[in-house]
Amino acid sequence: MARQFVNMIVHDYGTGIYSLFRIDHSKHLFHETREAAQKAQAAALKKNKQRLSSTVSSYKGLPKAAVNFRVPAKDANGCSLHFFCLLRGLGEGCVLLANPLGHAAVYDVASKSVIASPDARFRKRVDSISLCMTRPGDEMCVDEEHRLYVLGKTDGLFEAFHYSRTGDSQDEPPCDVGWYWDRLPLPPPLQLSSWGPPRTANGKELRPPSAAAVVDDATICVSFPDSGIGTYAFDTESRQWSEAGSWVLPIRGAAEYAPEFGLHNSSCHHFCAFDLKSCPPVEQHSWDCLGHVPDCWWPSYQRLLYLGSGKFCIATSFDVKPQKQRTTHRPPWWSDDDSDTIEEEQLTVLTGVEIVPDHRGLQMIKHKSKRFSSPNITLHCMI
What 8-state DSSP symbol labels residue 99? Predict the structure, then answer.
């Protein structure tokens, strides 16, 4: 699905409101042509040899919020338990949200309507791993069936949200007919302990899985990189787990699949592309998207969104410590009109990159980067 917008969920700590902002990436994160992007990058490099990418300009005001979500006062402190996800099977404007009690709803941007949704079986943190799959329709079910698989990164709980678009045309808003949550079996390592926290074979406490990827139309791979016990495969049709190997996925969170290149992609410190058809997966390419970052900038969140046609948006949030002295090493996106004093509590950088084939295999072209920061407002997630 080619996307026109990237969706930013922002949390206002002062009011407790969550807001959905939709950013047109073609206007703000990408040049009109690859040549223009390469020319801008070359000019930045010539101006300052330490700059490996274009400078970042401040985002001069976000667009008007598409919708605001207010939470009860008693839930205001549980911000990490408010879950948002894009239902890709319904287009790029249907957002699923679930509160700490598992109560869920879907907001459709196009029709400006809220759609009732069944309650989830367990509460979900904002950092839960989300994976989308589509099952083609058949003679008995004309519509495609879409599934959103959600895996908890703190407890390993696993379930799927089944949904489909009903109605006579794509222009009609979806409804919740036949939508349901389906609780799925835990990955095998988490099933072994009947008392106390699960443990590995050598007695160490088992850490929940923190990496996952859709391998094909019926298989999901889940890795335990923090426990050293390898990767397991889940068959979505038989609902059975099997051991895939002692290797782990070279990622954190969920991988994004780019069908143009037959490769999965992820961003954790570096933007990488790897081939899941080999076992273990082979990292084909790795690129540094951020360059040097000041010591007072602590990455707190990173998310990769695939936009289609080889284009990606990389969102990185930093917790910034106040720094009164002049920065010795400026980040590669620092603009000349920025002051030498960094006082933001948190800032978020959105970067547009494009992957294209070349004689070495694949090349990454950096386009634009935009920086956003505002008092009492933080990035909750990108979807």
Answer: -
Residue with tokens 């391998």: 215
Phi and psi at residue 54, to the nearest 5°: -65, 155
Tell me the per-residue pLDDT of 212-224, one tens digit each, with 9 for 90 and over. Answer: 999 998 999 999 9
User: How far apart (Å, rounded) are the C-alpha atoms in residues 196 and 205?
Assistant: 10
> What is the Cα–Cα distance from 54 to 71, expressed in whole angstroms?
39
Beta partners for 185?
Answer: none
The full length of the chain comes to 383
Contacts of 189 (CB under 8 A, 6+ apart): 198, 200, 206, 224, 227, 229, 232
Query: What's the pLDDT tens digit per position in 342-368?
Result: 455 788 999 999 999 988 889 999 999
- The CA–CA distances, whole Å, from 145 to 9, 94, 105, 232 equal 26, 15, 18, 25
Q: Which residues contact 63 (CB under 8 A, 6 or more apart)?
A: 21, 22, 23
Q: Six-digit token pair at 255?
A: 């991988």
Q: Which alpha helices (H) appear in the chain, and where do they start and end?
A: 25-28, 34-47, 188-191
Distance CA 130, CA 97 (A): 13
| Ramachandran class of 310: left when φ > 0, alpha when ψ lies in -120 to 50, beta otherwise | left
Q: Which two tokens stand for residue 164?
A: 């489909």
Nearest to 375 by CA among 10, 26, 50: 10
Q: What is the pTM of this model?
A: 0.85
Are 250 and 288 in contact by the 8 Å Cβ rule? The answer is no
Provide the 3-class DSSP secondary structure of residue 88: helix
Report CA 166 to chain centroid distance, whole Å.
Answer: 27
Q: What residue type is assigned to position 134 of the chain?
A: T
